[in-house]
Amino acid sequence: MPQSLSKVILHIIFSTKNREPWLDSNVRPRMRAYLGTICRDMGADLAHVGGVADHVHIVTTLPRTLSQAQLIEQIKKLSSKWIKALDTRYRGFFWQRGYSAFSVSPSQLEAVLRYITDQLEHHRTRTFQEEYRELLRKHGISFDERFIWD
Predict the structure, then answer these.
(1) 18-57 pLDDT, tens digit each
(2) Model-level pTM?
(3) CA 59 to CA 142: how far, in whole Å?
(4) Which residues contact 24 (CB under 8 A, 6 or more apart)?
């Protein structure tokens, strides 16, 4: 086959360090836009960015030339650098060390996008930790509570 083609859709989730509420309603739209710009600049087709004050959800395609780890490392690194340069009050901003990435079937894409769009409503009654545990279980990922939070 002379041409390499790929369409891998990822649902990426990571939080701020210690789930601190850095992403208030003023900076959140700007952060979402910047995350989208990073994805596009890296060759990904961005479908959606959402989240609340302490974490983000990104649905994007995985560029054919990058590994999942490379993509997420660049997203986190560049966005952290960007927010720290935005204003001195963000000097202490950090993303958590880890992340989760789930594959998204094209048949489930709309449901995942709705889930991300409804984050503010969803988190009126559930914490990030509760949401995260449920997503890990739903995707059949074993985890040890001692090692998933920082």
Answers:
(1) 999 999 999 999 999 999 999 999 999 877 999 999 999 9
(2) 0.91
(3) 22
(4) 53
